[in-house]
User: Fold these one by one.
Assistant:
Number 1:
Amino acid sequence: MPKVVTRFAPSPTGFLHIGGARTALYNWLFARHHGGDFLLRIEDTDRKRSTEPAITAILKGMKWLELDWDGDAISQFERAGRHKEVAEELLAEGKAYRCFATPEELTAAREAARERGENFRGDLWRDRDPKEAPEGTPYSIRIRMPRQGETTITDEVQGAVTVQNSELDDMILLRSDGTPTYMLAVVVDDHDMGITHIIRGDDHLNNAFRQYQVYAAMGWHIPTFAHIPLIHGPDGKKLSKRHGALGVDAYEEMGFLPEAMRNYLLRLGWSHGDDEIISTDEAITWFDLEHVGRSPARFDFDKLDSLNAHYLRTMDAKSLLSSIKFALEDHIGRALDSVEEARLLKALPSLAERAKRLPDLTESASLFCNTRPLSLTDNAAKQLTEDIIPTLAGLADELEAVTDWEPTVIKAAIMSFAEAKDLKLGKVMQPVRAAVTGGKPSGDLVETLAILGQAETIGRLRDRVAA
Ligand code: GLU
């Protein structure tokens, strides 16, 4: 097989949405699996709808997902000259023709075809002599579609799909203002870029038959097509914003990790036995088009959450810290100091056990920052009643005397204090947790105190006494 070359070809009319991200991922994986190239082409031919912020958002989303492309991103618009050249070549060979019809004539012909119950083929000038048009009449260039026979595409996902050629219209290749249509530009670019496999959403399957005829007319090699079923919402309906049809940036903001996102998008339409957790390396080794499902996948936030929780658990303390540092500093309104960082490096792995998304982790990590006096949740405030204050004051004194701030020693000190005061251990632990965490989700209490350090722990207890 020649070197595999795939591409992702987004139209920059909005953010990189979840379906686009999955298409990009499949193309990336297929290229990486075969040791080929993965190219990025920005389909900015539609000047009215393409925007610079959308291009930026797409590139940013790709980078966040760590889907690196080979070479520079290509602008389709900048290749307009080449598209025109191909249209003119087809014209010169008689495989395309000039259409002088006015918009009004076309509308009338479309209407008439509809009334006759026929497909509109835009072929008003297919058999007319261009000399019949007055000098200087603007014209578009249309492809001369075959009328006989049928076209079959053997799609890697959909199987063999056939249309009757009589159903294909003589589509415009070059508009009367000299600009290429999308249908022409895609084919010329895919050919010139040496694309061997076109993997994209099955909303493009109908276009594939029309594009096929452009390749055929030029005598170009026809790439392999793989049209992937679209993503649906959990209710089986077309994916809407409510379901999660958001930009990739929204998932980043919600606190999902790129590796979890890749794993999730991979499984959303492709399978490897019963495997749910698939690392990117495994995905590169295993990815193929054969196991792309034929029916639409359903988007499911719970699955994404559980994958994200899994990847959070596998991260080491340093990576966990760097993934929340920015948000945490934003939360406390200043940079972390070295004491806080050292505490976090100790605490994060066990905090990550209970987090689903990064904001959960940021929230529980903030407990280890010096933010005295802590603000209390309602629940914590309820536990810190007047009568418990002397207990906290007494325990603070007891802890002050501890010389070796280790979990076992801390625990022994609390136990002996409870015993001396004739209190059940829980009666002491509960308010201590409320005073020291302010009611934030926390793990093992003694472990938390050990990581917080002696001075901070006692300080937090005394804050409640003074309050
Ligand atoms: N630009 C098209 C889109 O964003 C994709 C074209 C293609 O993949 O062939 O839907």
Note: Residues 270 and 292 are 4 Å apart (CA to CA).
Number 2:
Amino acid sequence: MNILVINAGSSSLKYQLFQMEEGNILAKGRVERIGMETAILTHEPTGKAEVHEVREILEHTTAIRKVLELLVHPEHGVLASTSEIDAVGHRVVHGGESFKSSVLVNDEVKKEIKRLFDLAPLHNPAHMLGISAVEANMPGVPQAVVFDTAFHQSMPAHAYLYPVPMALYRKHKVRRYGFHGTSHNYVSERAAAFLGRPLEQLKLVTCHIGNGASCAAIMGGKSVDTSMGMTPLEGLMMGTRSGDLDPAIVPYAMGKEDLTLGEISSMLNKHSGLQAISGISSDMREIVEALEAGDKNAALAFEMYEYRLRKYIGAYVAAMNGVDAIVFTAGVGENSELLRQTVCERLTFLGVEFDEEANRKGRGLERRISKQGSKVEVLVIPTNEEWVIARDTFGLIQSQNIRLELSKIDFSHGNRNSVQ
Ligand code: AMP
């Protein structure tokens, strides 16, 4: 079975085509600057030359049509016909309280995703564009949606509620949802497999540290807390996002600087974090380069970033009353030796024994960076959100096929027999 995974943003669309039985990626790519005459299309078919085109792509339906043309292209394609695509899986950022797991798309599901536009105004409308674009280009092909929030729906009320008047929750669904769920779910499963222990028996702190960053406390395979909240702004300090701050700063800064709601929101989401403190970059590679060259602001930005991450790890160990393993993943978590080393060397009170040599080796691989016998294990697990989306879509299609097969069987004879 071939499954196309799509991550649609407002002006971009990323895709990966999986052959599920072998677990192979047949092709991947992205369309950027959708809506412009100079949209950029990058197509990477496995084992063939990469295609890079700049052309007019004004909306998502055209973007998907171009992607499908490339997937069956005589020279750059990987399929004989688009009919070889059995299903499409979409990433959807916000599933609110309605979606606790991935689902197949139908009219009800689409209506519910639209109802959630308010909670994720930048993301969910773009995902709907992706779903409609697939419908227009591939009518009848089943589609599934996989939500960033779904994995965290297991959080208990004491973790997901804010201590504000309950009317805000009842009337407007103001609560913590958490994000990066697909990634936290995947790395927790892989961590258990790596350790050779049942996930049901493990207490894990997973750290998804990329452009956006969040930690999760995972007990017995279920998320019991996570650092992002109602929106992906809460929690850790990030590349351009502030993470946690005193909410009173918002009206205070608005008054002092004469800022509108849009401006303060843009400040906290796009002009804060590493970028604001270093004055150099939101990219951890550039921060580390600058601090190694002696830049004081870069050093302060790194120190704040690491400190806030380590405090969350400590909080989640307390939340679970223990921890078996800490897992690092995503762009910074998988690649920044310095961040992992600094965090781990300051967690000795927990019983973390850090292995400096292991930390330097094996980039791109699942690995242990704590010493053999360390009371708390520390792992680096490369995340793979696209694979989880493909796998969930595959599972949903298979269970639907089983239901269809069962519905074809005439059970009436069996029933008659049992009555007699
Ligand atoms: P992600 O959102 O998971 O794609 O992560 C992207 C971020 O990972 C980039 O903005 C960088 O800050 C970070 N990153 C990527 N490679 C490295 C590296 N070698 N060292 C430190 N940070 C890195």
Note: The CA atoms of residues 110 and 128 lie 8 Å apart.
Number 3:
Amino acid sequence: MCGIVGAIANRDVSPVLLEGLRRLEYRGYDSAGMAVLTNGSIDRVRRTGKVSELSAALDQSALIGELGIAHTRWATHGIPAENNAHPHICNDRVAIVHNGIIENFEELKAKQSKQGFSFTSDTDTEVIAHQIVFYLDQGSSLNEAVSKTIKDLKGAYALGVIDKNDPDKLIAARSGSPLVIGIGVKGNFIASDVQALLKETQEFIFLENGDIAEITRDAINILD
Ligand code: GLU
């Protein structure tokens, strides 16, 4: 289990995400990645190895946007490789980062394969992104889709979710794995550890098991 950082603000959040990942480096990890909503589409950069390698890649092709998520991965399912690094994206629409282990991912994967979803990773995580899109396609709102999805999951998770069709919202959820919300000025943040956000804020909400939080630039709504 490794690190999550997420942000929504009235400014480019990629420096906050990168700094957050650096602050989580004290935990071991094998790869790192970031996804940001840029001009209506989700752009992503992932690298195996250190956050410095992700940072060098971002120097070549910057991610700029007001909503984004980032991750350092400690592989549990699937080797350390770029295609297994988070964020995972489904249908160019939903991006997620996940800490933890989904015990029933094989069952969900079999069902989703029949529904026509294809897989680009060997992780247990990718089923979460697909399941959220499955419910969105059925007409659920993003909050509802995440809420229905977590009912389908067995195991431990901390999640950060963004949807390109819902550009003013970051969704967080947790059970088993830790996740905090950092309350900022003209922006709010999530992280697996307060350490990641101490440069941005000293004010935190600690999510309880089973909580889902809907986070905008100026509001936090916890749906338990
Ligand atoms: N189980 C997930 C994976 O292997 C998440 C690992 C983590 O918590 O970093 O990709």
Note: The pocket of glutamic acid is lined by residues 1-2, 73-78, 84, 98-101, 123-125 (CB under 6 Å).
Number 4:
Amino acid sequence: MEQETYLSKEEIIHWLKEKDANKLASLYARADKLTRKLFGTKVFFRGIIEFGNSCNKNCYYCGIRKGNEKIFRYLMPKKEIVETALWAYSQGYGSVVLQSGEIDNEKRVELILEVIKEIKKKTNLRITLSLGELLKESYLEFFKAGADRYLLRIETANKSLYEKLHPEGHSFDNRIECVQNLKSIGYQVGTGVMIGLPFQTIEDLAEDILFFKKLDIDMIGMGPFIPNEETPLFSQKQYCMKEDMFQLSLKMIALCRLYLKDVNISATTALQALNRKGREIALSSGANIIMPIITPLKYRQNYLLYPNKPCLDETAEMCKSCIENRIKSVNKNIAYNEPGDPLHFLNNGKIND
Ligand code: 5AD
Ligand code: SF4
């Protein structure tokens, strides 16, 4: 494979500050070229099942934080979670993501174990978990039961910024330790940050990308911070960078592709909250993953981490055909029935270029 040299931190910062549209188009084209070299025209599909919205945490930015008393809390029954995953399988999805707020008790661990075992018994879907910071023993039990991947965003690599965004008892160090535990168990591990947070700087974002490499991450999911009126961080929104957040997010995706190379990068739903074509634009600027929401419709209104979340009233079927068309519009196609394991994981962290 043609040699792609690594960007330096200074170059990353330079690109994050770049305003010239032509120069930016060349950055996106470069990231797209590398993405196509690695994955061809394939976009991998993961169906997200937001199976419960109760959370023991109180992150200052999130709509389902414990302190938000305005939302109705739900937990999908085990049978319905499994049925939703089986539907995804029947539709050719290679993988499902089981996502919920952070609930750390035995009953929940039991539920997850049963769901994993049942799905694995009936399908060869890859199972990704996104359940927050749990005990290493729980991560290990899930892995042994058949879970393949875990998503845990670090939100920012800047510890003092992390502390501004979270109340007491939310530990940056513990979060990083969780990511390391997941890696050491053998999961394919995904992380990410929010882009454009209050008090965040361009240098912070460059550090985030370097930190992903240091953690040897396999998968990246990042999106713009979207102030949510129902949360305490809303009152700090004047301290956000005065940048075009959509462009800044695209730059981050392209730079992650060029710096981390063989990782999976997702075109996140939050991008589409800022631009109608957000996800497909991301898929032509370095992203190679799309995660349609397949949560049954009746629950979706209650899983609002941020406002303007797209696809709230589209059924999973509608979501699928809408996304198919979006992907075709950028000359890519969905890799049905393929697991789409991150090359970074398969290459064991060694890039063959
Ligand atoms: N804007 C954008 N992303 C958010 N998340 C939570 N709240 C917001 C918001 N207001 C993201 C966090 C979390 C993921 C599940 O959703 O990064 O890890
Ligand atoms: Fe809970 Fe995650 Fe929201 Fe924090 S970001 S309140 S841990 S769901």
Note: The mean pLDDT is 93.
